[in-house]
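README, section 4: Worked example with a bound small molecule

Sections 1 through 3 covered apo chains. Here we extend the same pipeline to holo records, where the ligand is supplied as SMILES alongside the sequence. The molecule in this example is zinc ion. Nothing else about the input changes; the structure line simply encodes the ligand pose together with the chain.
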Amino acid sequence: MPETCPHGFDESLLSGAIDRELIQSTAQKVRIHLEDCAHCRAQYDELTKLREVAMSTTIHQPPDDQWRETPRTGFSKAGRTMGWLLATLWLLIITAYGLYQGWQNTDGAFEKFLGFGGFGAVALLFASVALDRWRTAKTDPYREIEK
Ligand SMILES: [Zn+2]
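The generated complex, written as structure tokens:
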């Protein structure tokens, strides 16, 4: 199957047709083209499938209450952001302290590697989660709608 339509058909029209965004004459054009172009038919089926998967994931995805509950007030939102920042800061300090202590008290490259690897991994994981949360809190479109 070639990457693009062998007839040079504008494939963005396919997703437009699926989303029913096209004016009648264009939609008609897509339908006619689909009848005699196997490539675009395959593309169309693929897009339809993807669209269905996307829909069902949005609908059936269990709400991630643990993290995504919508803050009721500006205060709780700010509080949560602060909480994440403080938690991150706390972890960084603890980690730095632990690393320092570990470095002082262990000899042997292997022990050092063990201690540092563990601390580093936990710190990285935590930091990345915190960062994600923070970004989500700032950009989550649902939050905007709630207001
Ligand atoms: Zn085509």
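What to look for in the output: Residues 12-60 form one domain. The CA atoms of residues 103 and 109 lie 10 Å apart.

Section 5 describes how to batch many such records.
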